[in-house]
Amino acid sequence: QPPTPDALTILYGDDSGISYGTSISVVELAGKRYEFHNRWTASFAMEEGKWLLTSYHVSANVFDNPVLRASSGLIGWAALVAGVFGLGLGWWMGKRRKKAAS
Predict the structure, then answer these.
(1) pTM
(2) Are 52 and 15 in contact (CB under 8 A)?
(3) How far apart are CA 98 and CA 46, in angstroms?
(4) Where is 51: in which H helix or E strand?
(5) Mind listing the pLDDT tens digit for each residue in 10-62?
(6) Residue 2: its pLDDT value, please?
(7) Bridge partners of 31?
(8) Residue 63 confidence class, pLDDT cut points 50, 70, 90
(9) DSSP string computed for 67-93
(10) Considering only CA atoms, which of 17, 18, 22, 24 is closest in space to residue 5?
(11) CA distance 23 to 57
(12) Nearest Cα to 27, choosing from 60, 57, 75, 64?
C-alpha cells in the first residue's frame, strides 16, 4: 500500500513543507507474509519550480509487530525444550558423579 498522508502538506513559507502519515510494508520471512503498519514523515523543498523530497523517515513498532507475535510461541517451545534438556543433563551428570565417587 502506498504511503497515505494524515493531512495536507504543512507548508513553511513558499519553498518547504512537511507531510506525515501511515503505510503498510509487506515482508516475507520463512515462507510467511507479514504486514507492518508504519508511520512516516517526509520533508520537501521547492527548487527550480519543482517540489523535491529532501528527507523521508519510516518506522514500525518494535515492541508490537507481527514477527514478534509469531515468534513468541516459538520462544515458549524453545524454553520448554531447553528446560527438559537441562534437567536431563543434570540428572545424567549427577548419576555419573555418583559412580565416579564410589
Answers:
(1) 0.61
(2) no
(3) 81
(4) strand 50-60
(5) 999 999 999 999 999 888 878 888 888 899 999 999 999 999 999 999 998 77
(6) 84
(7) none
(8) confident
(9) HHHHHHHHHHHHHHHHHHHHHHHHHHH
(10) 22
(11) 12
(12) 60
Residue holding cell 520448554?
80
Q: Is residue 17 a contact partner of residue 11, using CB atoms and an 8 Å limit?
A: yes
Phi-psi domain of 13 (left: phi exceeds 0; alpha: psi -120 through 50; beta: other): left
Helices (runs of H) and strands (runs of E) counted in the chain: 1, 5
CA 63/CA 72 separation, integer angstroms: 12
Helical ranges in the chain per DSSP H = 66-101
Name the pairing type of β-strands 50-60 and 32-47: antiparallel
Residue 70 scores a pLDDT above 80: no
